[in-house]
Amino acid sequence: MSKTYSIGIVGARGHTGAELIRLVAAHPQLELAFVSSRELDGQRVADHNPAYTGDLRYENLGPAAVVGKGAEVVVMALPNGKCAPYVEALDAAAPQTLVVDLSADHRFDAGWYYGLPEIPRGRCQGQRRISNPGCYATAMQLAIWPMLEYLAGPPQCFGVSGYSGAGTTPSDRNNPELLRDNLMPYSLVGHVHEREVSAQLGVPVEFMPHVAPHFRGITMTVNMWLTGAVKPDWVRARYEQRYAGEPLVDVVEQAPWVSRIAGRHGVEIGGFSVAPGGKRLVVVATLDNLLKGAATQAMQNINIALGLPELASIPAFKETSHG
Ligand SMILES: NC(=O)c1ccc[n+]([C@@H]2O[C@H](COP(=O)([O-])OP(=O)(O)OC[C@H]3O[C@@H](n4cnc5c(N)ncnc54)[C@H](OP(=O)(O)O)[C@@H]3O)[C@@H](O)[C@H]2O)c1
Question: Which residues form ligand 1's pocket by a CB distance below 6 Å?
Answer without folding.
Answer: 11-17, 37-40, 77-80, 82, 102-103, 134-135, 164-165, 167-169, 289-290, 293-294
